[in-house]
């Protein structure tokens, strides 16, 4: 193979943020991307679309984090938001049992739509309010395992556990992407082409001028 | 798309979102509800059918053409017969509708065995005559060539060659859901930086899509136009929806916010005037930025999706952008997929799709209204701006709805104009009356003077009052009669000896 080193690759991933209102989705992401919590965010115009660049084991990763409208009346629009996403972060508030039930609904929906190609993270936020916990740690972790998701505890307020969520998610998305790209021959795996695994590669993939518009 | 009244909230049934073929994967409206794989299968079937039909039509046309060719060459030399055949073709082309033009063009690119006639038409000069009449097209071609000069020679040539092939090829596969640039990736760019590749892609897209726009935007073979009209009608019917119902967190009394919302509206309307997918996306992005600015002025925290989406819905309802569905479909079909999937513009675009889906399915519950209220507003029998109580004062109403204000001033202006017009008319009538009166008084005076003259002179000028009466009675009135009367006037009185 001609061209650059193995470091020439960069990956772009789309991650949707799901969770009931007020569980702290926005807080978690702002904490992660800008390390801010509940201050006057003078420089932050919006927290609905944020990006973060990472470098994992020499691989460049561009993370695009999509906030979704969580109000009940927008619930049905979910599928439009999470189409083609590589990962989802499902946030609940550990003091709010109801928000955990909502997470379960979303997991069901995501698995149905996107199958196992989407990496899921379930996040119990507001651990600083441990005294007021209404969701059992054991139940949450068991549930996560049963649906093939990772479970994390965070506090956006105290900046606990947030880096770990995104790092773990990225690693898993990378694995999926690499499996997919290694399988990507002419008859590529279902959906590979339109999912967000953008692999800008300086090495020819040996695919030739397949398909496309000129055939 | 009519929302069933029994439905609560906006429900997109999951079954509706899965591939129509039931393979279990997720379908996409752009692929007519199939997943990408099943769509490709379905599509290639349809495509072969289409190609066959096109070929048949083209063969028919060709027979006609050859007949024309034969008759023209019998009357002229072979050298002149070529242009004649072509001009005949041109004539026929303009007579037939655009669809056929496309079909004819398709034939040239699909035909494996180029016929005499297709060779004739593909000869460069004629071909440019047929296609290159749009300013945008030639401009795009020029810009693209400029760009290619910056690249390495062999790569540039390869790209240009492929683009040309693409343009001709795509005229055939109008519905190709997304044309993949994958071949470029591998072929021309060994060792290039990702940014370079990206930039080239942008330019390629610009060139190809500007050239193809007319053929692939809202193509007749799709339902796009019908959907455009449907959503336009739907939005018009929803004019009564207030920002409060949508939960839009903007402060509408701030002129700054109003200004930004207006800008957002302008941007989203402008989308339709752009040709290149990325330019259309840029309009959506600008619109979104203006919305975020409006949100920032209105509240102190960074806007989340729950602030943004309702405001975008509000803007879309206010703007009722032209050919909305066609534009969304076009972007979905032809925008660089990565841009739509992970880019910021893709996020805004997705929100716009959500806004449209919401508007289509919107019902009483999604606005927190009762069914009765919703029905009354929809039927136009009531307006949320003026609740069922006393009609509020005009001033209240004006402040409640910024759109009414210019309407109101226009109305006042019109009233003022009408008053002035009435005044003018009555003045004209006065003038008319004064003239008639003056006319009479002159006649009277002449009569008076005449009476004082000696009897003989009186007799000789007795024709004067008659003359005056004649002038007054002429149909065009006393003012305008001058010209006509200079013709019909009796010869001037000559001095005559008294008593003769
Ligand atoms: N104590 C505590 N409060 C938190 C934490 N994270 C968020 N909050 C608070 O929870 C409230 C809601 O946070 P947001 O980040 O706006 O929640 P959201 O999920 O984005 O809500 P929506 O945008 O309405 O869906 C805010 O008052 C935050 O200050 C946390 O870790 N601990
Ligand atoms: Mg939020
Ligand atoms: Zn399918």
Automatic annotation (TrEMBL), chain A:
Biased composition regions of type Gly residues, renumbered to the chain: 206-215
Compartmental location: Cleavage furrow; Endoplasmic reticulum membrane
Keywords: GTP-binding, Lipoprotein, Membrane, Nucleotide-binding, Prenylation, Protein transport, Transport
InterPro entries, per the entry: P-loop_NTPase (IPR027417), Rab21 (IPR041833), Small_GTP-bd (IPR005225), Small_GTPase (IPR001806)
Coiled-coil portions: none
Alphabetical list of Pfam families matching this protein: Ras (PF00071)
Cross-referenced Gene3D superfamilies: P-loop containing nucleotide triphosphate hydrolases
Annotated region described as Disordered, given as residue ranges: 181-215
GO cellular component: cleavage furrow; endoplasmic reticulum membrane
Membrane topology: Lipid-anchor
Biological process according to GO: protein transport; Rab protein signal transduction
Molecular function in Gene Ontology: GTP binding; GTPase activity
NCBIfam families hit by this protein: small_GTP
Family: Belongs to the small GTPase superfamily. Rab family.
Protein name (Swiss-Prot/TrEMBL): Ras-related protein Rab-21
Species of origin: Eptatretus burgeri (Inshore hagfish)
Automatic annotation (TrEMBL), chain B:
Location of region: Disordered: 62-86, 475-500
Alphabetized SMART domains for the sequence: VPS9, ZnF_A20
Signal peptide range in chain numbering: none
Transmembrane intervals: none
Pro residues compositional bias, start-end: 489-500
SUPFAM superfamilies tied to this protein: Glucocorticoid receptor-like (DNA-binding domain), VPS9 domain
Highest rank taxon of the organism: Eukaryota
Domain A20-type, first and last residues per copy: 13-47
Record InterPro entries: DUF5601, VPS9, Vps9-like, VPS9_dom_sf, Znf_A20
Gene3D superfamilies registered for this protein in UniProt: 1.10.246.120, 1.20.5.4770, VPS9 domain
Bias (Low complexity) ranges: 71-81
GO biological process: vesicle-mediated transport
A GO MF term: zinc ion binding
PROSITE patterns: VPS9, ZF_A20
GO cellular component, one term: endocytic vesicle
Keyword entries, A-Z: Metal-binding, Zinc, Zinc-finger
Residue intervals of the VPS9 domain: 225-368
Entry protein name: RAB guanine nucleotide exchange factor (GEF) 1
Organism: Eptatretus burgeri (Inshore hagfish)
């Amino acid at each position: 193979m001609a061209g650059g080193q193995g470091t020439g690759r960069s990956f772009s991933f789309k991650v949707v943020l799901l969770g009931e209102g007020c569980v702290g989705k926005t807080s978690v992401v702002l904490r992660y991307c800008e390390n801010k919590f509940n201050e006057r965010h003078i420089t932050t115009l919006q927290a609905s679309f944020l990006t973060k660049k990472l470098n994992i084991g020499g691989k460049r990763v561009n993370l695009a984090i999509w906030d979704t409208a969580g109000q009940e009346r927008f619930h049905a629009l979910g599928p439009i938001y999470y189409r083609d996403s590589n990962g989802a972060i499902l946030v609940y508030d550990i003091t709010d049992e109801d928000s955990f039930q909502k997470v379960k609904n979303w997991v069901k929906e995501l698995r149905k739509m996107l199958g196992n190609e989407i990496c899921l993270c379930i996040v119990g936020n507001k651990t600083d309010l441990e005294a007021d916990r209404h969701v059992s740690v054991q139940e949450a972790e068991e549930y996560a395992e049963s649906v093939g998701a990772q479970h994390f505890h965070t506090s956006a307020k105290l900046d606990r556990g947030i880096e770990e969520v995104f790092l773990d998610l990225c690693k898993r998305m990378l694995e999926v992407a690499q499996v997919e790209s290694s399988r990507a021959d002419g008859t590529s795996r279902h959906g590979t082409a339109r999912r967000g695994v953008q692999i800008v590669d300086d090495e020819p993939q040996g695919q030739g001028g397949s398909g496309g518009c000129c055939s | 798309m009519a929302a069933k009244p029994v439905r609560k909230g906006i429900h997109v049934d999951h079954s509706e979102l899965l591939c129509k073929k039931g393979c279990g994967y997720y379908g996409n409206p752009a692929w007519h509800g199939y997943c990408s794989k099943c769509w490709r299968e379905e599509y290639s079937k349809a495509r072969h059918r289409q190609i066959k039909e096109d070929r048949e039509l083209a063969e028919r046309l060709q027979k006609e053409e050859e007949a024309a060719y034969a008759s023209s060459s019998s009357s002229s030399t072979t050298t002149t017969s070529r242009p004649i055949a072509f001009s005949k073709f041109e004539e026929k082309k303009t007579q037939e509708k655009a669809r056929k033009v496309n079909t004819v063009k398709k034939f040239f690119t699909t035909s494996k065995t180029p016929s005499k006639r297709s060779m004739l038409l593909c000869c460069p000069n004629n071909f440019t005559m047929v296609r290159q009449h749009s300013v945008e097209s030639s401009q795009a071609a020029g810009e693209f060539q400029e760009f290619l000069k910056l690249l390495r020679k062999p790569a540039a040539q390869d790209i240009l060659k492929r683009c040309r092939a693409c343009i001709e090829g795509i005229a055939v596969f109008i519905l190709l859901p997304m044309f993949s640039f994958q071949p470029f990736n591998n072929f021309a760019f060994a060792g290039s930086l990702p940014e370079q590749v990206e930039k080239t892609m942008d330019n390629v897209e610009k060139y190809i899509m500007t050239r193809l726009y007319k053929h692939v935007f809202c193509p007749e073979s799709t339902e796009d136009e019908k959907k455009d009209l449907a959503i336009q009608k739907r939005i018009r019917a929803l004019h009564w929806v207030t920002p409060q119902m949508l939960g839009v967190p903007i402060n509408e009394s701030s002129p700054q916010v109003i200004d930004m919302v207006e800008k957002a509206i302008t941007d989203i309307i402008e989308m339709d005037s752009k040709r290149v997918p990325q330019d259309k996306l840029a309009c959506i992005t600008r619109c979104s930025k203006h919305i975020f600015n409006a949100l920032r002025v209105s509240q102190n925290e960074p806007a989340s999706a729950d602030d943004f989406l309702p405001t975008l819905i509000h803007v879309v309802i206010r703007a009722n952008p032209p050919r909305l569905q066609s534009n969304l479909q076009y972007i979905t079909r032809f925008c660089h997929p990565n841009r739509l999937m992970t880019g910021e513009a893709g996020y805004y675009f997705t929100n716009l799709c959500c806004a449209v889906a919401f508007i289509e399915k919107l019902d009483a519950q999604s606005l927190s209204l009762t069914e009765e209220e919703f029905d009354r507003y929809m039927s136009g029998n009531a307006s949320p701006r003026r609740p069922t109580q006393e009609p509020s004062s005009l001033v209240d109403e004006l402040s409640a709805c910024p759109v009414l204000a210019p309407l109101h001033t226009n109305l006042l202006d019109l009233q003022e104009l009408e008053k002035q017009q009435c005044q003018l008319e009555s003045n004209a009538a006065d003038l008319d009356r004064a003239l008639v009166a003056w006319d009479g008084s002159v006649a009277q005076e002449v009569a008076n003077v005449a009476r004082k003259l000696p009897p003989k002179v009186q007799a000789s000028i007795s024709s004067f009052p008659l003359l005056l009466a004649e002038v007054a009675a002429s149909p065009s009135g006393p003012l305008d009669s001058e010209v006509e009367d200079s013709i019909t006037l009796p010869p001037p009185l000559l001095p005559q000896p008294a008593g003769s």
